[in-house]
Specification:
The complex is a heterotrimer.
Chain A lengths: L4 E3 L4 H10 L3 E4 L14 E4 L9 E4 L2 E5 L4 H6 L1 H6 L1 H8 L4 H4 L4 H7 L7 H6 L3 E4 L3 E3 L4 E3 L2 E2 L7 E7 L5 E7 L7 E8 L4 E5 L6 E2 L1 H8 L3 H11 L10 H15 L3
Parallel strand pairs in A: 1-3, 2-3
Antiparallel strand pairs in A: 4-5, 5-10, 6-7, 6-10, 8-9, 11-12, 12-13, 13-14
Helix pairs in contact in A: 8-9, 9-10
Chain B lengths: L18 H6 L14 E7 L5 E8 L9 E3 L26 E2 L5 E7 L2 H9 L1 E7 L11 E10 L2 H7 L2 E9 L11 E8 L8 E7 L4 H12 L6 E5 L12 H16 L3 E4 L2 H7 L6 E9 L5 E11 L7 H11 L9 E9 L13 H19 L3 H8 L19 H11 L16 E13 L6 H5 L2 E8 L2 E5 L9 H13 L6 E3 L18 H20 L6 E6 L8 E2 L4 E2 L5 E13 L5 E11 L6 H20 L5 E2 L2 E2 L17 E7 L21 H13 L5 E2 L3 H10 L1
Parallel strand pairs in B: 1-12, 8-28, 10-11, 14-15, 18-19, 24-27
Antiparallel strand pairs in B: 1-5, 2-4, 2-6, 3-5, 7-15, 8-13, 9-10, 9-12, 13-14, 16-23, 17-18, 17-20, 21-22, 23-24, 25-26
Helix pairs in contact in B: 4-5, 7-8, 8-15, 12-13, 14-15
Chain C lengths: L1 E4 L2 E4 L8 H8 L18 E4 L2 E4 L12 E3 L12 H9 L8 H14 L5 H7 L11 H8 L4
Parallel strand pairs in C: 1-5
Antiparallel strand pairs in C: 1-2, 3-4, 3-5
Helix pairs in contact in C: 2-5
Classes of the chains: A alpha+beta, B alpha+beta, C alpha+beta.
Chain lengths: 257, 719, 148
């Protein structure tokens, strides 16, 4: 740990500058993923204290959540509860109080784990990842296993959710009721048709085939097709067979009226 | 000196003396101890499951003069971890065998953790790997076999109206004490005839100071008085700190000796999960013969347990498993054939229950299977079969006292909440099914057979000054309240208020060997010795003045007859009993099982401290719930895949059922104030009750633990 | 860097990346906070940072610059145990005690926010604190006993 440089920017502009100067550093928010990485990054760029990256605001037909806003803040936000209840639901399934007090959307996105609990909700909501230089639709954000579309030195500053009245439903299946990485995690919207699944591929996935069936109003078709959209594996947590069966069953559950 | 107005302490939930320290952070566990000048130690371990260690290479790019390196060549005594069989080396040697992943090969000590990690990165181990034996079914080496025979099982099975056969599997389980293993060793130069004589003191997280003492003497080649073992405040054990601390202590001591300074050897959670002992997994097959009317006529049982790569305590685990294998039932014809085999997996060891949870799991589910085949309620079979006063067990032990199968059964049934299944909505069956299961178990208190006689546990009770008393015992406090219950027992035997009694530190230079803190023996056996010593001390104080000390050594009552050769007779002085009722919700579309309620009625003879007795039951029950549902260990190439706390999962508050305990007291005349053992019993009941509940909910049988969602979903699909 | 620890201002000369857990235990001598896993799973290292319960093994000490940190040692006011600490003793909520500091802080944070938690609220608030000894029953009883 002592060999790891700690950088403390004054504001976002300073953070972007420092990031550019230290390409081997990793932006640090609550630390719930970064602090257990082995080996640790060479330098940590501490964003946690930057007010510009906190907050939940509404404007321009969207809700914008600061990249370093904690899940506790998200769960407690009246705006989120009203317009993005699935995001609050997903946030509640992450870890427990200690993790929710430090975990952030920025961290969940940058970590790009296929099991990230909020990521299917972001996909089903057509969220936009706002960085220091552009806006990236979340559907274009995950390009490989733990790989994102972020360019070197590019910093996530917020996540924007269009307010279009869509209803997103969320369900996570984990080994236990708290502090569990998911076996399968789904978020679904009927209109527009969005079916997003985590822990069934190397990235959080949009199940395009199932979505097309859902678009046509063919719920049974969506439930049958989804098995072909996903590519689950056997791992320490679960099996491909289980993930396939449960993805189907959970989709059926989430599409119930 | 005596205060006759003091109300008896035994049976009251007196304030626990250690309480204030634990809630203020003042209690110091091993890693909390500040030792100026101490170095940090680390164990380098094998990365193959089987083979020959060809070479240890210390990369010359690192300056090895900055650290201390210990190999098998540095072991002054015998390179062995002393326990039952001398098969486990303290360190593997070059040219010698590696028998499991994570086997200790080399030790390092350095002044700071950064340097330690750097040194570790510069060690290379070279092996000639061999094909490992990773499955119990493929094992070729047997550690131990036990056969228990009663009556004539072969004939009874032949003439039975119905024979039911089932096979059950039980999985590995990690004890998961929240404080990982650790020890600090202090080398010292002794005084005395051998000028420059050196010894070692080890302070550590442990259950059995004298086990560690013996192991250190052997490996370091030191006499009794040059080894001191002190138990630090210990953050949980559950058997996981019965024998494994000897390994940690030997390693820390070797490093400290070579470094000439104290060395801290504290495991992190990953190392603890990857390398330390687990509950023995196994396969148990029952063939049960019954009459048409449900009479139990024959039990033919086969048990195979996987001991892992070294013997450790496996023969004793096998013994407990075998003796409890027929369950809490009376049967005239029983044959139990048990064997423990070796595989190239990390050695398995003690974990609460110690073989009994495994064999009782099978025995209890057998009752369910037989009931289903006969078309009767399993409760009716249990009432028919259960052991009663005057019945004999599988080993031919006639139970003459404190038999409570029916008592606990009735108590649990009375206390269980009303059971309601969710009603189907219209034509749709509910997606979540509710089920209830019940189990009835017993657990022998103390060491098996002549074990306590061989242990010859010792305690002392002193009057240090008028009205001041002190208990000297090696029995350890590991959360279960040892010091408090001993103080209660002594205070009442002396007729003094409890605050006049203290318990000396668990330091081998100060206290006698009371035997290990295991086997549900602390309250009954050691507590009994304390009661006797205190009673005698009280008598002598009417004639003599303090300071005064009374020592007591365990003498086996001549009513206990056990034959080690035939494995027949009185396996234990007495048994404790429990009935568990578990309610579950099963989601049919995901296989997820939620245990919502557990009710357990327990007879432990006499609850010396009711709140702490409940605590044992609640804690042990949740450990069993975890074993039955989410504590799964997967292996690849002989290594545990679940080697971090993110992947080895124990229940959180949101997974824990409401646990209700009912203490039923059926006193045992041979226990202090009627007390029997309680520590392990709570582990035996919940798992089969949960599996029975899953069956009640879904109609599916899962004859194994853990009943993971993957297994439940598959079983529901195929049934 | 400076922060407030248990009501007192402390100056720490450690690299900003050093774990808060290690600064507390080793540099400042407050060993009440425990390391059970080092990966944010067990909660034994829980502390309060500006009133929020977090795992100190996941916090780089630089991040608490100017913050208010409370450990178990900071709960009892001048040696007088809090009602929560008393309740833990009375209800048998501590067996081996290693999870107790973290439990107390998580429970304390809950009671600061919600003085009348339900059984369910308590379970949610303590879900990040693993206990292996108690089965949680008496811990939950102790917290519920502190409702006001």
């Amino acid at each position: 740990m002592p060999d790891v440089t700690y950088l403390r920017p004054r504001d976002v502009a300073d953070a972007v500058r420092l990031y550019g100067e230290h390409p081997d550093c990793r932006p640090l928010a609550g630390g719930t993923d970064l602090m257990v990485m082995r080996p640790l990054p060479r330098a940590l760029l501490d964003l946690w204290h930057l007010g510009e990256l906190k907050g939940i605001r509404r404007g321009d037909g969207a809700i914008e959540i600061g990249a370093a806003e904690s899940y506790t803040g998200i769960i407690g936000s009246a705006l989120v509860r009203e317009h993005l209840p699935a995001l609050a639901a997903a946030s509640r399934t992450i870890g427990a109080a200690q993790i929710q007090n430090r975990g952030t959307l920025g961290g969940n996105l940058a970590n790009a784990s296929p099991a990230g609990d909020t990521l299917p909700v972001l996909l089903a909501a057509d969220a936009v990842v706002v960085t220091d230089r552009r806006a990236i639709p979340v559907a274009d954000f995950f390009i490989g296993y733990r790989k994102t579309a972020l360019l070197p030195g590019e910093l996530i500053v917020a996540v924007r959710f269009p307010l279009d009245g869509r209803v997103v439903r969320f369900l996570k299946v984990g080994t236990r009721a708290a502090q569990a990485i998911s076996k399968v995690v789904l978020a679904v919207s009927r209109a527009p048709a969005r079916i997003a699944v985590g822990s069934v591929a190397e990235v959080p996935l949009r199940a395009r085939g199932a979505e097309q069936a859902l678009e046509r109003g063919d719920v049974a078709g969506a439930v049958t097709t989804i098995a072909a959209d996903i590519r689950p594996i056997d791992d320490v947590r679960s099996t491909a067979a289980y993930r396939r069966a449960v993805t189907r069953n959970i989709l059926r559950r989430l599409l119930e009226p | 000196m005596t205060d006759s107005a003091a109300s008896p302490a035994v049976g009251r939930s007196v304030p626990r003396r250690e309480g204030a320290d634990k809630v203020t952070g003042r209690a110091h566990y091993t890693d909390d101890l500040v030792v100026p000048g101490a170095w940090y130690g680390k164990t380098i371990r094998s990365t193959v499951a089987r083979g020959t260690l060809r070479a240890i290479t210390l990369d010359p790019a690192f300056d090895w003069s900055r650290v201390v390196v210990v190999t098998a060549d540095d072991i002054p005594g015998d390179n062995v971890v002393q326990l039952i069989r001398d098969d486990q080396p303290a360190l593997a040697r070059v040219g010698g065998e590696i028998r499991h992943q994570e086997e200790p090969v080399l030790l390092l000590a350095a002044p700071d953790k950064g340097l330690l990690e750097e040194a570790a990165r510069h060690v290379r181990l070279a092996y000639e790997a061999r094909e490992p034996v990773l499955e119990l079914e493929r094992a070729t080496e047997t550690y131990h076999t036990i056969e228990i025979v009663k009556g004539d099982v072969a004939t009874a099975l032949r003439v039975a109206d119905l024979v039911v056969e089932r096979t059950f599997r039980v999985g590995l389980q990690e004890q998961l004490y929240i404080e990982p293993q650790g020890a600090i060793a202090f080398p010292y130069r002794g005084s005395g005839p051998g000028a420059g004589a050196s010894g070692v003191t080890v302070i550590g997280s442990l259950q059995c100071p004298y086990y560690v003492h013996r192991a250190l003497k052997r490996a370091l080649g030191l006499p009794d008085e040059q080894v001191v073992v002190i138990q630090a405040e210990t953050g949980g054990g559950f058997g996981g700190k019965e024998e494994y601390p000897s390994v940690v202590a030997i390693h820390a001591a070797l490093l400290a000796r070579k470094a000439g300074r104290p060395v801290r050897l504290i495991y992190d959670r990953h190392e603890d999960l990857a390398a330390t002992t687990k509950r023995h997994p196994g396969v148990i097959t029952h063939r049960t013969g019954v009459g048409r009317d449900g009479t139990l006529t024959a039990q033919d049982i086969e048990i195979v347990l996987d001991g892992g790569a070294y013997c450790t305590l496996t023969p004793v685990v096998l013994s407990r498993a075998a003796i409890h294998a027929a369950g809490a039932y009376a049967c005239p014809n029983v044959r139990i054939r048990a064997r423990a085999v070796a595989t190239n997996t990390p050695p398995n060891g003690a974990f609460r229950g110690f073989g009994a949870p495994q064999s009782l799991f099978a025995a209890e589910l057998m009752v369910e299977h037989v009931a289903e085949r006969l078309g009767v309620a399993s409760l009716d079979l249990r009432r028919k079969w259960m052991l009663r006063l005057g019945d004999s067990t599988a080993t031919g032990q006639v139970l003459t006292e404190s038999v409570s199968a029916e008592l606990v059964l009735d108590a649990a049934l009375k206390a269980a909440p009303t059971f309601q299944r969710p009603r189907p909505l219209g034509s749709n069956l509910p997606r979540v099914r509710r089920g209830r299961g019940l189990s009835l178990v017993f657990h022998g208190s103390g060491f098996t057979g002549s074990g306590e006689k061989k242990l010859a546990g010792k305690v002392a009770v002193e009057c240090t000054a008028p009205g001041e008393f002190r208990i000297l015992t090696a029995s350890t406090e590991i959360g279960q309240g040892t010091k408090t219950i001993f103080s209660q027992i002594a205070a009442d035997a002396l007729g003094v208020p409890i605050d006049r009694v203290t318990v000396g530190a668990q330091d081998t230079s100060l206290v006698p060997d009371s035997g290990p803190t295991v086997a549900s023996r602390t309250a009954m056996i050691v507590g009994g010795l304390i009661r006797d010593a205190a009673t005698e001390l009280q008598k002598r104080l009417t004639q003599e003045r303090p300071p005064l000390r009374v020592d007591r050594t365990y003498v086996q009552p001549d009513t206990v007859h056990w034959d080690d050769a035939t494995y027949r007779g009185d396996a234990y002085p007495v048994y404790a009993w429990a009935c568990t009722i578990a309610d579950v919700d099963v989601a049919l579309d995901t296989g997820e099982v939620r245990v919502t309620d557990v009710v357990t009625a327990v007879d432990c003879g006499k609850a010396i401290h009711p709140v702490m007795a409940e605590g044992q039951i609640e804690g042990g029950s949740l450990q069993a719930v975890g074993w039955a549902t989410i504590e799964e260990i997967k292996m690849r190439d002989g290594r545990y895949l679940n080697d971090r706390l993110a992947t080895y999962l124990i229940p959180t508050t949101l997974d824990a059922p409401r646990i209700r305990t009912i203490l039923v007291e059926n006193p045992y005349s041979g226990g202090p104030f009627g007390a029997k053992g309680i520590g392990e019993l709570p582990m035996d009941g919940p798992a089969p009750a949960i599996i029975a509940a899953i069956h009640d909910a879904t109609g599916a049988w899962i004859d194994e633990v853990p009943a993971t969602p993957e297994k439940v979903l598959a079983a529901c699909a195929s049934s | 860097m400076r922060f407030v620890l248990n009501g007192r201002s402390v100056a720490v000369d450690a690299p900003g990346s050093r774990r808060l857990l290690d600064v507390l235990r080793e540099d400042l001598g407050f060993t009440g906070t425990k390391e059970g896993c080092g990966e944010g799973e067990c909660g034994a290292c829980s502390v309060l940072i500006d009133g929020a319960v977090v795992d100190s093994c996941l916090v780089a000490v630089g991040q608490v610059e100017g913050c208010n940190v409370v450990t178990v040692e900071g709960l009892a006011d001048g040696g007088q145990l809090t009602a929560l600490q008393q309740a833990f003793i009375e209800h048998g909520a501590a067996q081996c005690g290693i999870c107790t500091p973290g439990m107390l802080l998580a429970a304390h944070a809950l009671l600061q926010q919600n003085s009348q938690p339900s059984d369910g609220d308590v379970r949610i608030a303590l879900a990040g604190n693993l206990c292996r000894c108690t089965g949680y029953t008496k811990i939950i009883d102790a917290v519920l006993a502190c409702r006001t």
